[in-house]
Task: structure prediction
Amino acid sequence: MAEEVHRVTEDEKRAAYRALEDRILNGAGQASPELRARAFRNAGLAPPLDELLGNVATRPTQVRDADFAAARAAGYSEDELFELVICAAVGQSARLYDAGLAVLADVTGEEDG
Result:
């Protein structure tokens, strides 16, 4: 007997994404919510985080150990850096996803849902 497969709806995907975004931006963590939001937006970051998280978001192959060393030397803990890297990566993926949906909506003439 074949098992029925649950197809994830767009609403379920959006709800899961909203929960992820809320958790990384507002959940418990070592980095402040304000700093996590800046990392998510990839904006308003001071050195050395600007270069490290900018690379994470837009040039991940260019992230170097020296970028992390500089951030640690500036006083950021491993836990803070982990959280900020996740925020930067998820923020960039959200921007790319939204841009892709906008292009699809433009091409098909449909509103983004």
In short: The mean pLDDT is 93. DSSP finds five helices and no strands in the chain.
